[in-house]
């Protein structure tokens, strides 16, 4: 039986005058929401919910989107609509522009009947993973400089594919957190970044085998952290928390004591936990109270039943295994000692879906596969459809369900007034055929138009006025001496 603490309480908050009731289920993180009155105190747009000044990271001005065919992600059918974005939020949605009462100086985007829908979310990315292992090339440079440059390049690929949030489940050192901050403040274009920091595993665990990357703590900026013992796992969680983690990523192998210590520590800090695990380790992790399991890797029927019972979700990531299998297979790995053909993986995904487990969409594009975008994301939507789902259900999994798995459902995932303005404009009907997502027109992230007519739109910088007095003095005295 799971030995997770029972946190069951009601939290009350307000969002634009609407009362919200959140039920915190067994074993989930302590979110401390009951102590923050959101009508008084603004909080960060991530699962940490840190108090921020009102208007923090919010762009100025308003945007009117007229003549939309709105697929809002709630499950409602697409309908004619107009939207008013104010700063970073969707302020109003009407059947026509006349209902918006928009300010006269609002930027107007006429989408001429194209589909407007919530931005896509990718729950499994590695923004800074190397493109090659064991080669002294720029693509395998594990310095923070190399990691940041790879990350910035990949952000562009995602956002030009209509992805407005990525969940980074392991990257190098501080790089994913800096990428997150620079995107959030509008200094570089990209999707929102929700980062775990380094993947935590035991010595010799998944991602540390063979010619894998350098690992923390001996290499502090590693994307993988090798820990030992319950206290070691607890400390590794705190190291990610200190850097700014939005959630915690664990990898097998680990002992029961180690995984339980990590999960308990993360939950006490208010962070959800997801795990890359297989066979017996998935059972152990689910018993310890993890919130999510990545990949379609083998697990027993008992584990599947327990996942369903405890509301542990699955990010099935079938597409990377299809690529691995197309390349021959997953060889020489000590953490992948099982058969994982496409048929076996799909059968596992079907079992999880049939058991009622919540399934999210993620692509796990390692090495250079991000260059295939948007195809891998579309392939994962097709994989989801192969569970017997409609295109509209696939889009809802990619938006609403993914936001729920992130712990961001109150701010992301659907287009309703009060939500953050993350949306895409598609010249087609992706809710009827997901292939239409290729015809991406506009992408808006946090109320900023980032993609226009299918490509990055970077506004010219605003020239700041140089002061004529009190000019900052560069003190070179210490150098002169
Ligand atoms: Zn991964």
Structure commentary:
- With 481 residues, the chain is α/β, with parallel strands linked by helices.
- It has a single domain, classed as TIM Barrel (Alpha-Beta Barrel), CATH 3.20.20.140.
- Helices cover 26% and strands 22% of the residues.
- It is globular.
- The structure holds zinc ion.
CATH superfamily: Metal-dependent hydrolases
Extract low-pLDDT stretches. Answer: 1-26
Query: How many strands appear in the DSSP assignment?
Result: 22
The CATH topology name reads TIM Barrel
Total of DSSP H or I helical runs spanning 4+ residues: 11
Question: What is the makeup of the main sheet?
Answer: 9 strands, mixed
Q: What global shape is seen?
A: globular
- Give the C-level CATH assignment: Alpha Beta
**Mean pLDDT, rounded to whole units?**
91
Instruction: Decide which structural class fits the backbone.
Output: alpha/beta
Bound molecules: zinc ion
Beta-strand share of residues: 15-25%
Total count of domains: 1
What is the straight-line distance between the termini?
A: 70 Å
Rg for CA atoms: 22 Å
Helix content: 25-40%
CATH architecture: Alpha-Beta Barrel
Q: What is shown here, in short?
A:
By secondary structure, the chain is of the alpha/beta class. It has a single domain (1-481), classed as Metal-dependent hydrolases (TIM Barrel, Alpha-Beta Barrel). The chain has helices at residues 144-159, 175-184, 229-243, 256-269, 279-288, 301-309, 318-326, 342-354, 375-385, 391-406, 477-480; strands spanning 9-15, 18-24, 62-70, 79-86, 89-94, 107-110, 115-118, 120-125, 163-168, 192-195, 199-202, 215-216, 224-227, 247-251, 272-276, 292-294, 313-315, 359-360, 423-426, 440-445, 448-452, 455-456.
